Amino acid sequence: MMNRKPLLLALGCLLATTAHAQKNLYHKGWVDFNKNGRRDVYEDVTQPLEKRVDDLLAQMTLDEKTCQLATLYGFGRVLKDEMPTPGWKNEVWKDGIANIDEELNGVRNTPKAASKYTFPFSQHAVGINNVQRWFVEETRLGIPVDFTNEGIHGLNHDRATPLPAPIGIGSSWDKALVRRAGETVGREAKALGYTNVYVPILDPARDPRWGRVVECYGEDPFLIAELGKQMTLGVQSQGVASTLKHFAVYSVPKGGRDGNARTDPHVAPRELHQLFLYPFRRVIQEAHPLGVMSSYNDWDGVPISGSHYFLTELLRQQYGFDGYVVSDSRAVEFISEKHHVAPDFLDGTRQAVEAGLNVWTNFYTPATYINNVRELVKTGRLAQANVDARVREVLRVKFRLGLFDQPYVPDPKQADKTVHTPADEAFALQANRESLVLLKNENARLPLQKSQLKNLLVVGPLADNPDPAISRYGPSNNLVTTVLKGLQAAAGPGLTVQYAKGCDVVCPGWPDTELVPTPLSPAEQQGIADAVAKAQAADVIVAVLGEDDKTVGESLSRTSLELPGRQQQLLEALHATGKPVVLVLINGQPLTINWAARQVPAILEAWFPSPSGGTAIAEALFGDYNPGGKLPMTFPKSTGQIEFNFPFKPASQADQPIGGDPNGGGKTATNGPLYPFGFGLSYTTFAYSNLQVTPREAAPKAPIDIAVDVANTGPVKGDEVVQLYLRDKLSTVITYDSQLRGFERVSLAPGEKKTIHFTLHPDDLALLDRNMNWVVEPGEFEVLVGSSSTDIRAKQTFVSKAE
């Protein structure tokens, strides 16, 4: 059960002076939710959880039960009223509702959602209390609402603390930082009145063309599981539910196509469990989230949101999930509309409820779905027992969240003191710093020495573009420090920072121009020429190139991973000036920057930062911060190599030799990654030594302790991400060439040495055998420790004994 405060004596005091208190629902230590004048079992905080659920469920009518199976999208989306009105008595939610999503959050780019209850923060808490009070006081049983919201870039609320895109957070490889990110999101949600946050995304981003790569922690299931676990623990430590998404096999639609596709993942059963379900299983079993979002794709011909195997057998029976499952928007409709395994929405509803779906979500009134369930029960097509089971699971979460003990934000004014504080802003800046990955630094071009520079030119369509720093799924209306502004603020006296846009992110006709190139227009030629002219007077050029929120993101998959538009031409023109060029990438997915990797002396990967990203980038370029992030995804050299990712089966990503064996040779393909998984440079160097594996022969199920010394052998302080990989030398089924099984981000001063410790458990050694059972087979395992998946600094073996 989650940590929560019982009903406080302050609750009665809080409401005693209000007109609502005249209803005499609020008593010392309890609320008379059903308004019958006595303390029912479900209203008694001292009663066991299951008894409270049983008592409430027994009092509910079919209409009240079905209302606990649907989402109502908040004001400006589906809900038309900021505050309750008399007309609500004529709406389907007169009998309650499971959750209200994005209520009064000021969602980005939705003018109709603008509200006086969004900001200041205390006003939002007041607004949420007003809405909650209506459900408590005006519905028969007073069942409180679960207020849900997004949280992958920080809480999706006007001016809340903004965080970098998840792909940037994944590049930090910092479990403590992600735990604090979760605590921040959860704390702010709690203060504002949200009780459930849709975070983290646990989808492995195996295809870099897929638009939502930017919203994932990376491609490796172990990295995702470790970071997702910390995010979940952080959120739920604040008394708020964490809802994992998107369950499952969502991130590899055929060809990486997003938008209207989002279906037909080509994933074998063993790969399903080892790659795509692994993060969900780990996080559910180790962090116990209260929510899971079901995805709208299929697997092996069955829609996930209508699959008893996924939503009941796997989630509840095997993994032990005991929260409630909410559908992704329109997932239930897709059972008939997209997948055509139901004749209509009504039968799709039946399939979803029977499969184990608890709460339907879509961008229209919940009445349609709720009436579907009612009709199915009344006509005998859906058993009442199925509905009761789904409702019970929703109610259980509401009890565990404390909504029946304290349904309101106790002190709304406190939100102004606890949301987006100066300490939160400092943390957001640190998250941006740790997300940076240094991809190239030829001849120590970076850091730039201010004392040796007089004129610095910042060029590119992303140099002064705030849009990538503000996500649809994160806070809005925060002041953005772009790269240009960050460099101008950090330059100091004696260094002039000039700016030229050069070109737009994309060009007219894009993306078709990636198939059939078109000549530059006169305006485009002039833009590049102006940038080149300014470059002639610069000592160094910082080119800020990549993607914006209109070229990568949800429903924005790509067929090419090249720099879009005219950016490559701009970069080549700048390089041709002979002036030193530093490339800063603002992007949401790996890019095939082969020319830059060969020609540009320094490249810094910044992903989509949050609003303080420009400050962090300036610090890194000028040496006030030493970037230490590592890539959470492989960068391919070409889309023709895809899939090209980690982990991989032995030889599946091997080079194609140019000669030799006629069955394996031939100079026809590009070999190797542009940048491998786990890669990242530093302004300093690190040495590994004294790898110890104990014991060298392990009894079954015994832990394996690993220690390695890491020293900073360079001139400046820096962070190293120490990575542990495991290789099963001989197995009854083919295993991955190696698998990530541990990592630690460590900060070291020059000359400092630390011993890094890891522990391998049986789950780390397990494989799915030929009968699809998880087992640890006896035999020899190789431990590989290093700075990336290809930069292995030390190796050692141990033997796992037979049972």
TrEMBL record:
GO terms for molecular function: hydrolase activity. Residues 1-21 form the signal peptide. Residues 720-789 form the Fibronectin type III-like domain. It comes from Hymenobacter negativus. The keyword Cell inner membrane does not apply. This is Glycoside hydrolase family 3 C-terminal domain-containing protein. Gene3D superfamilies: Glycoside hydrolase family 3 C-terminal domain (3.40.50.1700), Glycoside hydrolase, family 3, N-terminal domain (3.20.20.300), Immunoglobulins (2.60.40.10). PANTHER family: BETA-D-XYLOSIDASE 5-RELATED, SUGAR HYDROLASE-RELATED. InterPro entries: BXL, Fn3-like, GH, Glyco_hydro_3_C, Glyco_hydro_3_C_sf, Glyco_hydro_3_N, Glyco_hydro_3_N_sf, Ig-like_fold.
